[in-house]
Every structure is written in structure tokens, then in C-alpha cells.
């Protein structure tokens, strides 16, 4: 998979050299490059923002540096040039992800879907956001997806990109050593993960649930499933409501 990130703070993305994502880059599973938006300005101050039409607080990111940065990325991608008649085929288009509190919510399902794509481009806005015409223009060559991490406001898209790249990158085959750990984690089956414990069995006068010491795999599996249901009902009742009847077995319904 190829990843491009455009930002006025490229240093923010240095964290993607670390840990599993950094290893995936070194192993050639992920090819990533970070572009400084200010390299596409023409004035002495390398200006990327201006006042909003219609007035109001804050500044808006100017369209031209964005167009030039995205054109350079687009034109270095085989098969994705926007100058072909009718534009490139939908499946060949890179996905342009624009982190924004006004986007669709990024979920595990979104991460799974994006992990299948060949080329993701992240456009990190700052201030009040990017001139809307950039997103309209970009639709000729990219599949444009404004994406929100959740209902709160960050100062810019960079931190959201760190979270999204980690969530997507770990789903690429080969990035996580033991793929079974992807099956047993929160959100993989629409529920939150069960509680986990490690040695010692007694710690500061606190024990662990007896069943985990029983060696009885069926009972342990049932206990874990019940804990998932209990935890999800109490912390995230919205997730329980979204479950389909087929997601629950007879024992779940009784629990
Ligand atoms: N940029 C600012 N706030 C954001 C959010 N909640 N999600 C994604 N990008 C953002």
C-alpha cells in the first residue's frame, strides 16, 4: 500500500517511523511519504491561509497550494492521472482522506475497507479547514472522503492521521505477527473486548476470575463472551442496538 500525507507540520508524522507501522515501512509492506504543503507556496512567507469570505473567526487554507501538492502526488501515481477522458476508473483512484470534525465517522469498518486500497492520500487541514473548492476539484482524480475521529475538535488533521494510519496499517496482511489477535479484539465482532489478566494470579489481594484457571476452554469462551456483552451493554449500548440477530447466539440472548 502507498500512503501520502500532506501537512504544514511534517514533523508530526515522524511517529509513523516507530513500532509496527515503522517496521511495516522497513519491510516494504507500506510505502509512505510526507509532503510539506508550504513547498507549494510562491510567496516569501510561504502563506497557506487567508481570511474567510463572508467573515467570521479564524483562517481558511488557500486552494492553490493544495491543488499543486495533490497534482504532484496524483501525477506520480500510475493510472490515476485526472486528464484521461472521464478521469481514471473508480477502482484506480487514490482515496483522498480529509480529516475533519465535519466528516463521516471513522470506524473499524472504515479501517477494514481502506486497508484493501492501493493508495491513500491524507490531506491535513489546519485552522478552520480547506477551501471547499479543493474537495470538489479533487473528485476528478480522487475518491474524496472527509473523515472524523469522533465528536470533538482537534487543532488539525495530523493527530487524526496518526490514528487512522495505525488502525488501517495493522490490518494489512503481514503487519501484525499473529493475525489471530485481530480476530479477538474490540470491534472485530461488533462488541468490546473482554477483560484480560496475567500473572501473578493474586496481586495486591486481588484474584482473577476462577474460570480462567479451570482449563475448561468451553467455559472460558462462554465467560469471555458474557463479559463482552456485559461490558458493551454498560459502556456502549449504541453498539448493542446495532447488532444483527445473527450476531447473537441463544446463550447470548439469555445472558
Ligand atoms: N480535525 C479536527 N478535529 C478532527 C476530528 N475530530 N477528527 C478528524 N479530524 C479532525
From TrEMBL:
Which is a Pfam family this sequence falls into? Answer: tRNA_m1G_MT
**Functional summary from the UniProt entry:** Specifically methylates guanosine-37 in various tRNAs.
Do you know which Gene3D superfamilies this protein is assigned to? 3.40.1280.10, tRNA(m1g37)methyltransferase, domain 2 (1.10.1270.20)
For the region Disordered, give the residue spans: 75-94
Provide the alphabetized UniProt keywords: Cytoplasm, Methyltransferase, S-adenosyl-L-methionine, Transferase, tRNA processing
Q: Which residues bind S-adenosyl-L-methionine?
A: 125, 149-154
Q: Name one GO biological process term.
A: tRNA N1-guanine methylation
- Reactions listed under catalytic activity: guanosine(37) in tRNA + S-adenosyl-L-methionine = N(1)-methylguanosine(37) in tRNA + S-adenosyl-L-homocysteine + H(+)
Annotated tRNA methyltransferase TRMD/TRM10-type domain residues: 1-241
- Which organism does this sequence originate in? Kocuria coralli
Q: Name one GO cellular component term.
A: cytosol
Matches recorded under SUPFAM superfamilies = alpha/beta knot (SSF75217)
- The catalytic activity of this protein is classed by the Enzyme Commission as 2.1.1.228
Q: How does it assemble?
A: Homodimer.
**What is its subcellular localisation?**
Cytoplasm
Question: Into which family does the record put it?
Answer: Belongs to the RNA methyltransferase TrmD family.
This one is known as tRNA (guanine-N(1)-)-methyltransferase
Amino acid at each position: 500500500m502507498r500512503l501520502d500525507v500532506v501537512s504544514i507540520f511534517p514533523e508530526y508524522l515522524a511517529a509513523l517511523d516507530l513500532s509496527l507501522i515503522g517496521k511495516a515501512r522497513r519491510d516494504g509492506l507500506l510505502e509512505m511519504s510526507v509532503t510539506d504543503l508550504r513547498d507549494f507556496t510562491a510567496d516569501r512567507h510561504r502563506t497557506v491561509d487567508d481570511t474567510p469570505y463572508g467573515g467570521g473567526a479564524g483562517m481558511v487554507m488557500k486552494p492553490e497550494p493544495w491543488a499543486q501538492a495533490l497534482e504532484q502526488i496524483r501525477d506520480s501515481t500510475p493510472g490515476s492521472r485526472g486528464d484521461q477522458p472521464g478521469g481514471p476508473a473508480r477502482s484506480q483512484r487514490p482515496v483522498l482522506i480529509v480529516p475533519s470534525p465535519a466528516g463521516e465517522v471513522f470506524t473499524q469498518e472504515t479501517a477494514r475497507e481502506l486497508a484493501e486500497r492501493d493508495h491513500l492520500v491524507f490531506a491535513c487541514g489546519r485552522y478552520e479547514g480547506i477551501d471547499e473548492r479543493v474537495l470538489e476539484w479533487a473528485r476528478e482524480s480522487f475518491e474524496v472522503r472527509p473523515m472524523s475521529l469522533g465528536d470533538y475538535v482537534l487543532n488539525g488533521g495530523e493527530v487524526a492521521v496518526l490514528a487512522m494510519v495505525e488502525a488501517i496499517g495493522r490490518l494489512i496482511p503481514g503487519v501484525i505477527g499473529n493475525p489471530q489477535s485481530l480476530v479477538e479484539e474490540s470491534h472485530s465482532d461488533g462488541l468490546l473486548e473482554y477483560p484480560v489478566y496475567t500473572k501473578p494470579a493474586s496481586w495486591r489481594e486481588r484474584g482473577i476470575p476462577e474460570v480462567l484457571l479451570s482449563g475448561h476452554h468451553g467455559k472460558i469462551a462462554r465467560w469471555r463472551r458474557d463479559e463482552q456483552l456485559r461490558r458493551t451493554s454498560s459502556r456502549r449500548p449504541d453498539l448493542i442496538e446495532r447488532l444483527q440477530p445473527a450476531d447473537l447466539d441463544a446463550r447470548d440472548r439469555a445472558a
